[in-house]
Specification:
The protein has helices at about 50-60, 105-110, 110-115, and strands spanning about 1-10, 15-20, 20-25, 30, 45, 70-75, 85-90, 90-100, 125-130, 130-135, 140-145. By secondary structure, the chain is mainly β. The protein has a seven-stranded mixed beta barrel. The protein has a three-stranded antiparallel beta sheet with strand order 4-3-10, with no helix packed on it. It contains three helices and eleven strands. A hairpin with a 3-residue loop joins strand 3 and strand 4. The radius of gyration is 14 Å and the shape is globular. It has one domain: Beta Barrel (M1 Pyruvate Kinase, Domain 3), CATH 2.40.33.
Length: about 150
């Protein structure tokens, strides 16, 4: 079982990532207040252990908000999880694929884009199947697709 470590939302496309203690995930839309409502990438998620590994490889310390994800989880591996369900508190997100790091990563730290590419370290994206409120500290669990019962 994992844990929700951080939540971020951006108010505008390419905008600053605002940290939150809690957020509402809306079915078919994503994080309430996010400009990506309804896209295929409704929620983006990174893994704390992968971020820590990237920072160790780079010999740097950068706030994980620089990755521009909505959620940071720990205790579960996001690698090769396409099609799986990520249960976060009372919510469920179906993982649709790997989030490919873009050139904005190199704006934050030169070389970051390349280091994030290996082993799904850039995180995943998904769609909200069960909405509700998520809070930092909520439990996180990966399940095979189709198994929403807890």
């Amino acid at each position: 079982m994992g844990r929700l470590e951080a939540i971020w939302v951006k108010r505008a496309r390419r905008g600053v990532m605002d940290p939150l203690f809690e957020a509402r995930l809306l079915v078919g839309h994503g994080v309430e207040g996010s400009p990506r409502h309804g896209s295929r990438r409704q929620v983006t998620i990174i893994q704390q252990e992968a971020w820590d590994e990237v920072m160790a490889v780079m010999g740097e310390r950068l706030d994980p908000a620089a990755r521009r994800a909505n959620l940071m989880v720990s205790g579960v591996s996001l690698r090769e999880t396409r099609g799986m369900l990520l249960l976060v508190g009372e919510c469920a997100v179906q993982i649709r694929g790997e989030t490919r790091p873009c050139e904005r990563m190199d704006e934050a730290l030169p070389g970051l884009q390349e280091v994030l590419r290996a082993g799904w370290r850039g995180g995943v994206f998904g769609g909200v199947l069960v909405g509700g409120v998520v809070r930092v500290g909520d439990s996180v669990e990966l399940r095979a697709s189709g198994g929403l019962e807890r």
